[in-house]
Design a protein that fits this description.
- The structure is a single chain.
- The protein is α/β, with parallel strands linked by helices.
- It has one domain: Nitrilase/N-carbamoyl-D-aminoacid amidohydrolase (4-Layer Sandwich).
- It contains 5 helices and 12 strands.
- It starts with a strand and ends with a strand.
- The relative contact order is 0.18.
Length: about 240
């Protein structure tokens, strides 16, 4: 039986296009959370700014997060625009630990405004392993596509983790999606939802980051204010 996994979902303030400032804020969350896995919202390192330059996972501005992860033993899942070897731009999840960062997942299901801004879909679902826990990764619209959850679950996952951005009028969306995914695939769902004003017309965002157990029950939830962080301990179901 795997040991329990301590997770945190964070909804930090975000400074548009200021990777250094946002990385410092991420590092402070990691240092304070006392969690093994810390999940941040979609495009958390730049804000939801669709013209943001691609960010390399070894960018020196991410050094505060690397240092915080090294000190705490955490893995941080942060959102950023990236480019592949051919220059194609993706909305991605960076997995950052005490040794550095890497692109762990590229968003597969894009909104029309993201495609219009030149982003392209990622190629495939992805899983990150943390202490024997298999964590399937998702970004925002992915979570509303049942085929995405099914394809990710087919890889053999224990957790479905996502970073999202929603308008404040869509505060119910994450809970509805999380319950459906948890129950359909018998997995924990961990969602970090932006609560701060950000780009793309998201002047008011939903917040309410949360953790749901495999029955679909909500076990931890943040409020709607930026800066909130909540933690939960996941226990193995099988």
């Amino acid at each position: 039986m795997r040991a329990p996994l301590n997770v945190a979902v964070a909804q930090p303030m975000c400074v548009a296009l200021d990777v250094a400032a946002n990385a410092t804020a991420h590092a402070a969350v990691v240092a304070a959370a006392a969690a093994r896995l810390v999940v941040f919202p979609e495009l958390s390192l730049t804000g939801y700014e669709l013209d943001a330059p691609p960010l390399a996972p070894d960018d020196d501005r991410l050094a505060p997060i690397v240092a915080a992860c090294a000190a705490s033993g955490a893995v941080a899942l942060a959102g950023a625009p990236v480019a592949d070897d051919d220059g194609a731009r993706n909305i991605a999840v960076l997995a950052i630990d005490g040794t550095g960062g890497r692109v762990a997942y590229r968003k597969m299901w894009l909104g029309p405004e993201e495609a219009a801004a030149g982003f392209v879909p990622g190629p495939a679902p992805a899983v990150l392993t943390v202490d024997g826990w298999r964590v399937g990764l998702a970004v925002c619209k992915d979570t509303g596509v049942v085929e995405h959850a099914a394809a990710t679950a087919a890889l053999g996952i224990d957790v479905y983790a996502a970073g999202v951005v929603h308008h404040d009028t869509d505060v119910h969306v994450d809970g509805d999606r999380a319950q459906r995914t948890a129950r359909a695939h018998d997995v924990w769902v961990v969602t970090a939802s932006c609560a701060a004003p950000t780009g793309g017309g998201y002047d008011r965002t939903a917040g309410r980051s949360g953790v749901w157990d495999p029955s679909g029950a909500l076990v931890a939830v943040a409020g709607r204010a930026p800066g909130e962080v909540v933690t939960a301990t996941l226990t193995a179901q099988r």
